[in-house]
Specification:
The protein is an alpha/beta fold. It contains eleven helices and twelve strands. The longest helix is centred in the N-terminal third of the chain and has 19 residues. The chain binds 3-isopropylmalic acid and manganese (II) ion. The site of 3-isopropylmalic acid has 4 residues, from helix 4.
Length: 354
């Protein structure tokens, strides 16, 4: 039997609850497709940090390097100063495991309310390939005259050709494998960011011209992209963009596909250990109430299977989510208004993949 070692990091707030439902669905789909997953649970998060002062020990990173994938709930605790857990756990993992792609599908399932009322599942189905370890997130910058009236600060958008190129190549490959419109739209702000933007524009064009003649190339400024995502989302197939722009447009993407209850993402190292998570936060006020929507975590589990090369099992998870929503049994994707509880939704999806 094919066996995978999966690290589970429930994290904070509702993270552990939604992850439990994701594991429930994985177990159901694995039983059907002859796969086995051995899980190791880690308790990194705000509670552990407040107890021990530790965010993510280096010894844990060494263990995670040897697993097949990491499945994550959510990181973020109301009693911990913002930034400590985000940089100490989430960004540390993305960097240490060199998960240089953040893959975020934007897909409207049936019966899901989107503010774009006249658009349906046919019109909202694209994928954002967000560069995940570079740019402003590199952390280069400085401050001077702090706490004086003239304080200054900088934070630099750092990119090298290799870092841009490996991301752009991943996106071209993804557009080819996806096999839909075969359109790769680069999103940047090259009219203002003349150096960093130009590096992306030339890399996108040169790599495409040389190795991907079958994929159409296109470019949007990031501000225009937010407009088109709402006005004509059907235009997009695969978007590739730098880290901060990707962070921002994928929150917009999550909204047009129905909200954080359904938005999943993968932090991908194509040659190493990848990590999958619902995009939403830890929703502290819903913790432990069986009210949070586990569908985003379940969809992240589907992405985990796809990245492990288990396409049949991944498609089964996606089809089960589709069918659960098409049945109309879930009244809303928002926490507390779903018409059923967290565990009931997990049971329902699990029963459909089995
Ligand atoms: C995300 C989050 C993170 C990011 C934060 C929590 C550091 O917003 O996964 O999109 O900015 O990448
Ligand atoms: Mn974000």
């Amino acid at each position: 039997m094919k066996t995978f070692d999966i690290a589970l990091i429930g994290g904070d707030g509702t993270g552990p609850e939604v992850l439990n439902e994701g594991v429930k669905v994985l177990d159901a789909v694995n039983a059907k497709y002859g796969l086995k997953m051995n899980y190791t649970r880690y308790d990194f998060g705000g509670e552990r940090y407040m107890r021990t002062g530790e965010t993510l020990p280096d010894s844990a990173i060494e263990e995670l390097r040897h697993c097949s994938a990491v499945y994550l709930g959510a990181i973020g605790h109301p009693d911990v100063k913002p930034g400590i857990l985000e940089t100490g756990i989430l960004l540390k993992l993305r960097f240490a495991l060199d998960q240089y792609i953040n893959l975020r599908p934007v897909k409207l399932y049936p019966n899901v309310a989107t503010p774009l009322r006249d658009k349906g599942p046919e019109q909202i189905d694209f994928v954002v390939v967000r560069e995940n370890t570079g740019g402003i997130y590199t952390g280069i910058g400085g401050a001077a005259m702090v706490d004086t009236p003239n304080e200054i600060a900088t934070q630099v958008m750092v990119y090298s050709r290799p870092v841009v190129e490996r991301c752009v190549r991943y996106a071209y490959e993804y557009a080819r494998k996806r096999n839909r419109k075969k359109l790769l739209t680069l999103v940047h702000k090259s009219n203002v960011l003349t150096y960093a933007g130009d590096l992306w524009v030339r890399t996108h064009r040169e790599v495409g011209d040389a190795d991907y003649p079958d994929i159409k190339q296109d470019y949007n400024h990031v501000d225009a992209c937010t407009m088109w995502m709402v006005k004509s989302p059907e235009y997009y197939d695969v978007i590739v963009t730098e880290n901060l722009f990707g962070d921002i447009i994928t929150d917009l993407g999550a909204m047009i596909q129905g909200g954080m209850g359904i938005a999943a993402g993968g932090n991908i190292n194509p040659a190493g250990v990848s990590m999958f998570e619902p995009i939403g936060g830890s929703a502290p006020k819903y913790t432990g109430k069986n009210l949070i929507n586990p569908l985003a975590a379940i969809c992240a589990g589907g992405m985990l299977l796809e990245t492990l090369g288990e396409n049949a099992a991944a498609n089964a998870v996606d089809a089960a989510v589709h069918d659960v929503l098409a049945s109309g049994k879930i009244t809303s994707l928002s926490a507390g208004r779903m018409g059923m509880g967290t565990t009931e939704i997990g049971d329902l999806v699990a029963s459909l993949v089995a």
